[in-house]
Specification:
Layout lengths: L1 E7 L7 H15 L3 E7 L7 E3 L2 E6 L8 H16 L4 E5 L8 H5 L4 E5 L11 H16 L3 E4 L2 H11 L4 E2 L14 H4 L7 E5 L8 H8 L7 E5 L6 H11 L5 E5 L3 H10 L2 E2 L10 H8 L6
Parallel strand pairs: 1-2, 1-5, 2-4, 5-6, 6-7, 7-8, 9-10, 9-12, 10-11
Antiparallel strand pairs: 3-4
Helix pairs in contact: 7-8
Length: 292
Amino acid sequence: MRIAYIAVKGMPVGGGIEKVTEEIGSRLVAKGHEVVVYSSRDYGTSNGDYKGMKIRTVPSVNTKMLHKLSICYHATRDVLRNGKVDLVHVHAVGPSIFSIFPRMKGIPSVVQTHGLEWKRDKWGLIGKTFLRLSDYSVVYFPNKATSVSKVQKQYYREKFGREVVYIPNGVSPVEHRSPEWILEQGIKPNQYIFFAARLVEEKGAHFLIEAFRELNTNMKLVIAGDAAHAERYKVYLKGLAGSDPRILFPGFVTGQPLEELFSNAYLFCLPSTMEGLPVALLEAMNYGNCCV
């Protein structure tokens, strides 16, 4: 079977959606399927192979409102014009509007939802309205829709009388990493609180920084992550941190540094206001972290 994933920010860079795509896509390849992942060019991703998956980059309009939609537009267009695929897998609520076009060409489509998007703090009135309307395309446009949380499944049942398939995110077994990279950053094992997420408002990093600054402690607070189109919020976070030397912003981390941060944290904290089933929290639990 040839499966097209539409669409991710980058591979292997990115967040939870990218991690889920990587884990499932590579396993599908191992089972003999061909997987094509459509990715944005804005994250430094290039065409090629990654863990057996074919990465195909497409252009995009790099703004908060249009970035993901423009990636999905170009990816869908490429699938319909050039790609002989057996299934199209569309990520997220907004892009679900594109799931009807493969169906019109006789190609089955699946939409995987990752949360109630219209509840995210980053969206204004226009964005929230569009995403509320997109809930209709989730349940009516694809052949099947899935959700990562039971709350979301219940929402679609109660609002639309439609069933979506509950498929939670998962994690792979891990081995704890001894501290090397973190020591180079001046971070001592079991002497820091760890936050890892996109630096957007609904993830709640500002709550954590404000609370941490009230603590009389020698521990550090490590705020790991980044986000596109969120420069104002990132400046705001660093303003909240001020000159407090205990608060560190290592930026986007992956690979061994991320594994070390999970392995040696005193606790993991994710004070978000809205989630589906966050991969970062699952990973923290997988490492045996105390989670708040």
